[in-house]
Amino acid sequence: MKYVLFTGATGDLGRCCVEAIAGLGDWTVFAGGTNEEKLHTLGELERVIPVRLDVTDEESINEAYETVRRHTYRLQAVVNFAGIHTFTSMVEGNCVEEIEKMLNINVLGMVRVNKRFFEMVRIGRGRIINCSSESGWMTPQPFNGPYTMTKYAVEAYNDSLRRELMYLDIPVVKLQPGSFKTQLTEKIFRDFDQVIQTTNYFKKVLTTMRPMMTMELGLDHDPNKLAKKLIRALTAKTPLTKYKVCTGKLLMTLELLPDKAVDLAYKLLVN
Amino acid sequence: MKKDFSVVTGGTGYVGLQLVKYLIAQGEKVKLLLLEDHPCLEGIDCEKHVGNICNPVDLDACFRGAKTVYHIAGVVDISGKKEELMWKVNVEGTKNVVESCKRCGVENLIYVSSIDTYPDKFSDEMKTELSSYSEVGLTSGYAITKALATQIVLDAKDELKVCCVQPTGVLGPDDYMGSSIGAMMDLFIKGLFPVSMNFGRYNFVDNRDMAHAMYQAAKQGRSGECYILGGEIVTVDELMGHMAQALGKKKPKIKISKKLIVPFVPLISGIMNLAKLPPMLNSFSLSKLEENCNFSNEKAKRELGFSPRPAAETIRDTVLWHQKKLRGEV
Questions:
Q1: What architecture does CATH give domain B5-174+203-234+292-309?
Q2: Burial, A211: exposed, middle or buried (Cβ in 10 Å; 0-12, 13-18, 19+)?
């Protein structure tokens, strides 16, 4: 039996991935999350062991480590899936607080978990899979700064870690998913609408941008596509350094343009 | 129920067989837990219990009524081919042994750990016993599994008396199972090892001295303690010299350097593999010859009366035993 620790397992996409891994038959998943109710339902799945895990809390991570250690000394993988999203202006509202919170979960959470479980992965001859995003490599969008900052940081952290752990033959892989219709998407719209309500300067801009957001985020990508890609990253004998899945086509086209042209595109969109 | 016998797991191995002989010589009743009977036990007055340490039921049946369990059975693999078996036997098996000892009311558990459980091998400091053991800083599967198993044993210190002995490179007679160094000695006796090396050294302990120390550990060792059982540090060239002297041969004149050997390691390793010989030369064994082998045996001397004999005597007896084996006299 192989063992994987999966953080962020109580989200919609997380659960879908956990189900897919457990469905392989030869993997047991330690499904980490903070939502007790959802952890309970995860525990009803075969080959899934729910673990209370708050990636912002060292004590919680240590407790999760002890739980995993009671079952195994070795992990064949750690999948860092825990993450949040906030849509906010960089000059209005509580952006500093939001950024701190998001960095703590999306970036430092990943660092903490990988650091604590590193020895288990090393002796299990396992691998580390970090969930980044298309926002981690695409040109940043306005009002999505904090999330983009965290995902750019994840990319930098992941690549540095990969080049560090290659000396120990531990593969480090990043997943770069596009948008999926989940509770996260709904939250993005809620945040977006709240910013529209409270902004002093960007009401027109944001109102004009909303349909584009709907187009981009409302895409009904099948979460199973992500799970399938994750399984590939998890089981490939020699995994790739990154796996992209369901990249947004509209945003992708902006990648072809120089910075000035992208700026102009966003400006023309409003005018 | 009167507890009047000792159990030895791995009793046919290099360390185990000597211990069995020693215990019997001390008047102990000995029961062996064996995967299967072995001709080397012929004429040895002991009870044999066929079973597997991976099966708790076998252990309970064997341990019930025992006063002391000497747990020696383990898998040593430096080829990487038996990694899973090593985890199963060394870690899970040891866990089973500890739990079974608790269930059966065994009073003493003596575990044969290893000096491979010590990290930072390339510093020159004198190593002394640690208070706890973990996988941190260890690279080989063998070292990791032995370190985890050692800690599993030590963790039981409040429930029964547990001691771990940590031998350095084991030499001595009765190498029926075929150790790597024994295979090298066989080649030397046959004249197929005509060269020495101008590098490498290791710390050796005699399996007969180990047997005495383990017996003493059961009698007067402190629970939750480890004892390094190390002897003299001998260079590869000195080893060859002692072997030659014991056999009345001339010591090889040619000494080859590490630089000369390294390119041929995969080839030599492949030939050893084809010849079904223990993997005596590979990158792992080469690195071991350059590790820090300064291990202090002071604690074992002080608390167990450990008294290692001179390395020359051990090497002589070992090589002469191998000579007898090749002649079919043992």
A1: 3-Layer(aba) Sandwich (3.40)
A2: exposed
**How far, in whole angstroms, is CA B54 from its chain's centroid?**
20
Q: How far apart are CA B33 and CA A133, in angstroms?
A: 56
Distance CA B235, CA A25 (A): 51
Tell me how far apart the alpha carbons of residues A184 and A11 are, in angstroms, rounded to a whole number.
8
Q: What is the DSSP string of B128-180?
A: ---S---STT--SHHHHHHHHHHHHHHTTTTTSEEEEEEESEEE-S--TT--H
Whether ipTM tops 0.85, in short, is: no
Q: Which residues of A touch B148 (CB under 8 A)?
A: 73
DSSP class of residue A167 equals G
Q: Is the pLDDT of residue B1 over 70?
A: no
Q: Are B144 and B138 in contact (CB under 8 A)?
A: yes
- The side-by-side arrangement of strands in the sheet containing B201-206 is B169-171, B201-206, B233-235
Cβ pair B87:A119 closer than 8 A: no
DSSP H or E run through A101: helix A95-102
Residues from A contacting B (CB-CB < 8 Å) are 73-74, 119, 122-123
Cross-chain residue pair A123–B135, CB shorter than 8 Å: yes
Prediction pTM value: 0.88
- The burial class, CB within 10 Å (0-12 / 13-18 / 19+), for A142 is middle
pLDDT 10s per residue in chain A (271 long)? Answer: 999 999 999 998 999 999 999 999 999 999 999 999 999 999 999 999 999 999 999 999 999 999 999 999 999 999 999 999 888 899 998 889 999 999 999 999 999 999 999 999 999 999 999 999 999 999 998 988 999 999 999 999 999 999 999 999 999 999 999 888 776 677 778 888 888 899 999 998 888 888 877 776 656 678 899 999 999 999 999 999 999 998 888 788 888 999 999 999 888 887 7
CB A229 within 8 A of CB A175: yes
Residue indicated by tokens 């997943």: A175
Contact between A123 and B144 using a beta-carbon 8 Å cutoff: yes
Instruction: Indicate the length of chain A as a whole number.
Output: 271
Q: For each of the domains in chain A, give its residue range(s) and CATH number, in order of start.
A: 2-184+221-248 (3.40.50.720)
Q: Which residues of B touch A165 (CB under 8 A)?
A: none
